[in-house]
Specification:
- The structure is a single chain.
- The chain is of the alpha/beta class and about 475 residues long.
- The chain folds into two domains: about 150 residues, Leucine Aminopeptidase, subunit E, domain 1 (3-Layer(aba) Sandwich); about 300 residues, Aminopeptidase (3-Layer(aba) Sandwich), CATH 3.40.630.10.
- About 35% of the residues lie in helices and about 20% in strands.
- The chain has an eight-stranded mixed beta sheet, sandwiched between helices. Strands 1-6-5-2-4-3 form a six-stranded mixed beta sheet, with helices on both faces. Strands 11-12-16 form a three-stranded mixed beta sheet, with helices on one face.
- Strand 14, helix 11 and strand 15 form a beta-alpha-beta unit.
- The radius of gyration is 24 Å and the shape is elongated.
- The relative contact order is 0.12.
């Protein structure tokens, strides 16, 4: 979809469908046709949130969208309103939508309209047979125009870059595991680096894991014939100052549970276990495309977790890159093993602020559902930056506590650490407590996105992959660029 802005009046726009927003107690903009006011007077149109009414004038469609109370209107409500407009536009076979920016709104609302529209317009068609139906309405928009002041053009353009990255992350998430192997993800990352100025990408395999002493990551990978991939991306923007920010992503491209095999129902969803890695990868590319003045190091651990004669077994003991030994008491608690070595790698490469994303525990879904991702951190200031970035993007998080009593739960009987404490208490928090052993004193935040990475069921990202985390990570990077 092409996304542009224009400061011309709505009636002068080259679009087949023109969007006129209206708040409670207000009247349509002066360049809207009289037909919309007549619909309001007759009661056919309403000003309540997401109410829609259609009129025709000057050979084009005019769609009135109610926004409800001005005092209640937020960027998140703008995203949701944009979805209603897009869905009605599809019914009308619209190809080009032009939104008039709601009166007295700022750049954040213009950006949010862009985000809601582009995210909701997402479709994955690559695995379907091509069937041409000349009478079928268009599946996707050709273009979106946001009619707004010229000074908002940069915000709209940047929003388009970020949500297009989120949609590419959704493409990665939705690809089946026989298509998106760890090797394929590594090749995708290298191609991304070649296409993105300023982005350097290195991909290493099994031999490098062993040479680097990454015994925890390598242990997960040893059950699969697929080569694992340690993907490292580096970007330094022009004029970059501040600490080296690091994104770390779990990318288990298929998680069967290993020897501790998962139940068959919904196991197909375990292709989504690479969602943290997809978000970290595409957010990094978006930051480079935007040219943000930050220093960024991204580390992604990609592997499969499968049962085989060479797979790790419950009771095995492995050694992570920092020398910590780990009892493997559940091979389905593999994500923290991959992340342990990836966190060590990020710190060893100079990371000064680290945030990791992982579909790590089912316990976070029990605690928070899909509304919030779980946030745990060893640094209050850094955690506040993450929370604020989530609030601004609508990818909201809820902070859970860390405490020395949780640390005691992950102590091993025969090794330093236990990857799956038998007590089954505070599963999301103990997973974070485990990870905290691999970052030292570096300010660190952990996002458990198991409830948010797919089937988020927000209007602009319904079923399937959500691309959760891309927008939050880019916004977090902006907080270090200011």
């Amino acid at each position: 979809m092409e996304v542009t802005t224009s400061s011309q009046p709505l009636s002068a726009q080259e679009a087949d469908t023109l969007i006129v927003p209206i708040f409670d107690g207000e009247t349509p903009s002066s360049d809207a046709p009289e037909a919309l006011a007549e619909l309001l007077d007759s009661g056919e149109a309403r000003r309540s949130f997401r109410s829609l009414a259609l009129a025709h004038a000057d050979g084009r469609r005019w769609l009135l969208v109610g926004l409800g109370s001005r005092n209640d209107f937020t960027p998140e409500r703008a995203r949701v309103a944009a979805v209603s407009v897009l869905e009605r536009g599809r019914e009308l076979s619209a190809r080009v939508l032009c939104w008039s920016l709601p009166s007295e709104s700022g750049a954040d609302i213009a950006a949010a309209i862009t985000e809601g529209t582009v995210l909701a317009d997402y479709r994955l068609e690559r695995f379907k047979s091509a069937e041409e139906d000349l009478d079928a309405p268009p599946k996707q928009l050709e273009a979106l125009i946001v009619a707004c002041p010229d000074e908002y053009a940069g915000a709209v353009s940047a929003a388009a870059v970020v949500v297009e990255a989120a949609n590419r992350a959704r493409d990665l998430q939705n690809r089946p595991a026989n298509d998106l192997t760890p090797t394929a993800l590594g090749e995708y990352a290298k191609a991304l680096g070649e296409d993105t100025p300023g982005l350097n990408v290195e991909v290493e395999g099994r031999a490098s894991l062993m040479a680097r002493g990454m015994g925890a990551f390598a242990a997960v990978a040893q059950g699969s014939v697929q080569e694992p991939a340690l993907i490292t991306l580096r970007y330094e923007g022009t004029g970059a100052v501040g600490p080296v920010l690091s994104f770390v992503g779990k990318a288990v491209t298929f998680d069967s549970g290993g020897i501790s095999l998962k139940p068959a129902p919904k196991m197909a969803e375990m292709k989504f276990d690479m969602s943290g890695g997809a978000a970290a990868l595409e957010a990094t590319a978006a930051i480079a495309r935007l040219g943000l003045p930050v220093r960024l190091l991204t580390v992604i651990g990609a592997t499969e977790n499968l049962p085989s004669g060479s797979a790790i077994k419950p009771g095995d003991i492995v050694t992570a890159a920092n020398g910590k030994t780990i009892e493997i008491n559940n091979t389905d608690a593999e994500g923290r093993l991959v992340l342990a070595d990836c966190l060590c790698h990020a710190v060893s490469q100079g990371a000064e602020r680290v945030i990791d994303l992982a579909t790590l525990t089912g316990a976070v879904i029990v605690a928070l559902g899909s509304t919030h991702a779980g946030l745990m951190s060893n640094d209050d200031d850094f955690a506040e930056l993450v929370e604020s970035a989530g609030a601004r993007t609508g990818e909201i998080v809820w902070r859970l506590p860390l405490h020395e009593e949780y640390d005691a739960l992950v102590k091993g009987r025969f090794a330093d650490l236990d990857n799956s404490p038998a007590a089954r208490k505070a599963g999301t928090i103990t997973a974070a407590s485990f990870l905290s052993n691999f970052v030292g004193d570096v300010p660190w935040a952990h996002l458990d996105i198991a409830g948010s990475a797919w089937d988020l069921n927000r209007p602009y990202v319904g079923k399937g992959a959500s691309g959760y985390g891309v927008r939050l990570l880019v916004e977090l990077a902006r907080s270090f660029a200011d």
